[in-house]
C-alpha cells in the first residue's frame, strides 16, 4: 500500500533581539523541510494598538500559509493553477470596458493608483501575494494623493485621499480578485485576509416631502434633468442607472409599470415596480433602443444645474443628483416601510448599507422632539 504524502505548512514565529517575533512558514514536504520568511513581525503588545496590529499581521500570514498549501496541492495533483499567469491589469481593464459614466471614471482612478504603486503593467495573479495586497492598502492609506492622477487638476495642490475614497479604491481593487475567483482565473483570493477600510459615516443630504413639492413648483434650468431627478426621488435609482435606462427595460406588468434593468454599480439584475407618479415621469414611450431620459449631459453639468435650481427654490441645502436617492430612502422609512424592503428597493447587497438611512431618521425624530416649545414656564414649575 502506497503511503500517502504528508503535505504540511506551519506558521511559526522566532524571537528577535528587539523583543519582536519574526513570522515564517515551516514547509514539510516529502520528508524535507524548508523555511520561508514572510518579512512580517509581531510587536510586543504594550497597547491596544499593538494587539490590533498583531491581529492583522497574523491574519495576513495565515492567508499566505493558505496560498502556499493550495500551490503545493495543485502542483502535486498535476493541476495547473487556473489561469494565474494572466495579467492582473488585463482583467481589470476588461471590467472597466464594461462600465460607463462616473462609475467608469472611478474604476479608471483606481487603475491609475495601482500603476503608481506597481509600475509593472504585466504583473500576473501568480505574482500577487497577500503582502503585495497589503502594500497597496498601505499605499492608499499613507502615500496616495488626490488629483495626482487627474491631468485636468494639475494646478490644484495634491492632498491625501479621504477615508471614503480609500475605502472606494480598495473595494474596487478587491473586486478584481472576486471576479477572478468567480471566473476560475485564481483558486485563492490574496486579498481575503487583508483588512478593508472602514467607510466613514457621513451626513447624507436629502429633501423632505415639502421641499420636493417646493422644488416641483420652481422652474428648472433643464426639464429633462428635472424629470430624471424626480424619477429618482420616487424610485431611488442612481444617476448611472437612469442615464442608461432604455424603453426596452420599461415593461407593463399586471396593469402597472415596472423596470427590469442591470444595476451599473453592482451588476445585479433588478425588478422595480413603479407607482403612478414615477410612471408619469417617464413621459411618452419611445423606441425600444432609445434612452428614456435622453440628452442628460455629463454629471458635472447636472451638479451645477441642480445646485442653481435648489437655490432658486429657496432650499438651503447642498443637493446633488444622488441626494434624490437619499430622499427616496428616508421617505420610505419615514412612511413606515421596513428596513429590509427599503434595502431591496435600493438594490443594496447588505442591509447594513441601508441602516445609515435609519440613523438619519432617528436624528430627525430627535430634532422634531427638540422643537417642542417650553410649555411650562418657571412659575408653573414651582407650584
Short key terms for the protein model shown above:
disordered N terminus; single chain; 3-stranded antiparallel sheet; hpI Integrase, Chain A; 383 residues; 6 strands; 12% strand; 47% helix; alpha+beta; 14 helices; 3 domains
How would you explain this protein's 3D organization?
The protein has helices spanning 48-76, 88-97, 101-117, 130-142, 163-182, 209-216, 223-235, 239-244, 276-280, 299-312, 323-334, 339-346, 351-370, 378-382, and strands at 7-15, 21-29, 32-42, 250-253, 256-262, 269-274. With 383 residues, the protein is α+β, with helices and mostly antiparallel strands. It folds into three domains: 7-76; 88-182, no CATH class; 209-369, hpI Integrase, Chain A (Orthogonal Bundle). The strands form two sheets. It has a three-stranded antiparallel beta sheet with strand order 1-2-3, with helices on one face. A three-stranded antiparallel beta sheet has the order 4-5-6.
Amino acid at each position: 500500500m502506497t503511503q500517502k504524502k504528508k503535505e504540511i505548512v506551519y506558521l511559526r514565529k522566532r524571537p528577535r533581539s528587539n523583543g519582536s517575533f519574526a513570522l515564517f512558514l515551516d514547509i514539510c514536504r516529502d520528508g524535507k523541510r524548508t523555511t520561508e520568511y514572510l518579512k512580517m513581525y509581531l510587536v510586543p503588545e504594550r497597547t491596544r494598538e499593538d494587539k490590533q496590529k498583531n491581529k492583522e499581521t497574523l491574519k495576513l500570514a495565515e492567508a499566505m500559509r493558505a496560498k502556499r498549501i493550495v500551490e503545493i496541492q495543485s502542483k502535486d495533483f498535476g493541476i495547473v493553477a487556473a489561469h494565474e499567469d494572466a495579467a492582473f491589469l488585463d482583467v481589470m481593464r476588461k471590467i472597466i470596458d464594461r462600465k460607463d459614466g462616473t462609475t467608469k471614471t472611478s474604476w479608471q482612478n483606481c487603475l491609475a493608483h495601482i500603476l503608481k504603486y506597481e509600475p509593472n503593467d504585466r504583473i500576473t495573479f501568480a505574482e500577487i501575494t497577500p503582502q503585495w495586497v497589503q502594500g497597496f492598502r498601505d499605499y492608499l492609506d499613507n502615500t496616495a494623493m488626490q488629483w495626482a492622477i487627474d491631468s485636468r487638476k494639475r494646478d490644484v495642490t495634491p492632498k491625501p485621499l479621504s477615508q471614503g475614497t480609500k475605502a472606494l479604491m480598495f473595494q474596487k481593487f478587491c473586486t478584481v480578485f472576486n471576479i477572478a475567483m468567480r471566473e476560475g482565473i485564481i483558486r485563492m483570493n490574496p486579498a481575503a485576509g487583508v483588512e478593508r477600510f472602514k467607510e466613514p459615516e457621513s451626513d447624507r443630504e436629502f429633501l423632505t416631502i415639502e421641499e420636493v413639492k417646493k422644488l416641483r413648483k420652481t422652474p428648472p434650468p433643464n426639464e429633462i434633468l428635472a424629470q430624471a431627478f424626480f424619477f429618482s426621488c420616487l424610485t431611488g435609482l442612481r444617476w448611472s442607472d437612469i442615464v442608461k435606462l432604455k424603453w426596452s427595460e420599461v415593461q407593463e406588468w399586471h396593469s402597472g409599470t415596472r423596470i427590469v434593468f442591470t444595476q451599473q454599480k453592482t451588476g445585479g439584475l433588478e425588478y422595480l415596480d413603479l407607482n403612478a407618479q414615477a410612471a408619469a415621469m417617464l413621459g411618452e414611450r419611445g423606441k425600444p433602443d432609445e434612452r428614456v431620459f435622453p440628452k442628460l449631459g455629463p454629471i458635472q453639468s447636472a451638479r451645477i444645474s441642480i445646485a442653481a435650481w435648489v437655490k432658486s427654490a429657496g432650499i438651503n441645502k447642498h443637493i446633488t443628483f444622488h441626494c434624490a436617492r437619499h430622499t427616496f430612502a428616508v421617505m420610505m422609512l419615514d412612511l413606515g416601510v421596513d428596513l429590509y424592503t427599503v434595502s431591496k428597493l435600493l438594490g443594496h447587497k447588505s442591509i447594513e448599507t441601508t441602516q445609515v438611512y435609519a440613523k438619519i431618521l432617528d436624528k430627525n425624530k430627535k430634532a422634531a422632539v427638540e422643537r417642542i416649545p417650553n410649555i411650562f414656564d418657571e412659575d408653573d414649575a414651582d407650584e
